[in-house]
Write a structure and sequence with these properties.
The protein has 374 residues and is mainly α. It has 14 helices and no strands. Helix 3 packs antiparallel against helix 6, helix 8 packs antiparallel against helix 9 and helix 12 runs parallel beside helix 13.
């Protein structure tokens, strides 16, 4: 007589076979994803920059395309060419000039051809560090080669770091140029790209929220761009006007440096503090004008602290502190690119969390509608 098969054992065998099949498929998909990431990773930063630039400039691209008969490719090409002429070329010239200046400084130091002017007597009256600065400055004026020999290792390291910084800026500029060209290609196919992005968000978050998350991501990227580039331009203009009012030499060049520093998220104090030092040490300013110009430069130098909170959150369906924290946190972890990614991710996370809070099944309908984010 044949034994009756155990139904639990048969079910266990089927479940084990199905689980093994799922694990094998998941492993193959994971391996495929890792291989794709390894192949794409060298271009990841470039493509993220291109996507950010395309999203930011796309409204301008559409406006230009409407003026030339809706030709998307021609409008993208014109924007790329204008961007190269207005941004890349001047920045490249400035970086080249900076590299030449560093090389000339190193050459003059090595050949003992560098001359240091005598310090002003007012330097010794600076609080805390005045006497030390005046003494070091006087020794450099009297016997610069001896000072250079005493600081030879530090000067060599500083020169090496300076040239490395210039080389890094040059590499970043080349990457930005490539990203700008790729952004032009993305803008030329902007409508199909927007549909694809919407389909991706709808597949991830559902059709009800896909469009909302797409609009939130786009608005966040544009807000951060205006909060960085727009703030940098306004701050450079304010500091440039302050430098002109104070009659500081090379005010135009210094304001351009402030613009570059603002885009790179470096403090404008790198320019305003030396300008303030020039006001107090040149001997060309009286006490009251020097104080007035100092206050003017300090206020204009800190203007970004007021402008960023105002401009970073404009047009975004998320509170300004969320955008600001995301931008600052992303910048701290991944540089300028992380500023855009961090703000976008934190804005999306905020919306998802607030939706989850608002959809509390135990809350009354009136309270859920009131707590739901707009």
């Amino acid at each position: 007589m044949n034994a009756t098969p155990d139904p639990d054992h048969a079910l266990e065998k089927r479940l084990a076979a199905r689980l093994l099949d799922v694990l094998i498929r998941a492993g193959l998909i994971l391996a495929l994803v890792m291989l794709c990431y390894r192949i794409f990773s060298p271009f990841l930063t470039l493509m993220l920059w291109a996507l950010i630039l395309a999203v930011t400039i796309y409204p301008l691209h559409q406006m230009l395309a409407s003026k030339i008969g809706g030709r998307q490719g021609l409008a993208a090409t014109l924007l790329v060419l204008m961007g190269i002429m207005l941004i890349v070329v001047p920045t490249a010239l400035l970086v080249g000039s900076l590299g030449d200046s560093i090389q000339d400084l190193v050459h003059n130091v090595k050949q003992n051809a560098l001359q240091v002017p005598p310090p002003s007597p007012g330097v010794a009256e600076w609080p805390i560090v005045g006497k030390k600065v005046h003494g070091f400055w006087a020794r450099a004026h009297a016997d610069l080669p001896a000072v250079v020999r005493s600081m030879q290792p530090k000067i060599g390291e500083l020169a090496k770091d300076g040239l490395g910084m210039v080389a890094g800026i040059g590499g970043g500029l080349l990457q930005f140029l490539c990203s700008f060209i790729v952004a032009g290609i993305i803008m030329a196919f902007g409508e199909s790209g927007a549909r694809a992005m919407l389909a991706i968000f709808e597949r991830i978050a559902g059709t009800a929220r896909g469009k909302e998350f797409t609009m939130l991501s786009t608005a966040t990227i544009r807000a951060v761009a205006s909060g960085v580039i727009g703030v940098a331009c306004i701050q450079a203009l304010l500091i440039g006007l302050a430098l002109l009012i104070a009659d500081i030499p090379w005010a135009g060049v210094l304001s351009l440096i402030v613009l570059v520093l603002g885009v790179a998220q470096l403090p404008a104090l790198l320019v305003t503090l030396p300008a303030i030092g020039y006001i107090w040490t040149s001997g060309d300013y009286g006490g009251v004008p020097a104080i007035a110009y100092t206050v003017l430069l300090i206020v204009s130098g800190f203007s970004d602290n007021v402008l960023k909170p105002l401009m970073l959150g404009r047009g975004v369906d998320a509170p300004m502190p969320v955008i600001l924290l995301g931008a600052l946190g992303g910048m701290a972890t991944s540089g300028i690119l992380g500023m855009f990614v961090g703000a976008t991710l934190l804005a999306l996370g905020y919306q998802i969390f607030m939706r989850w809070v608002a959809e509390n099944p135990e809350a009354s309908p009136e309270k859920a509608e009131r707590d739901s984010p707009a």
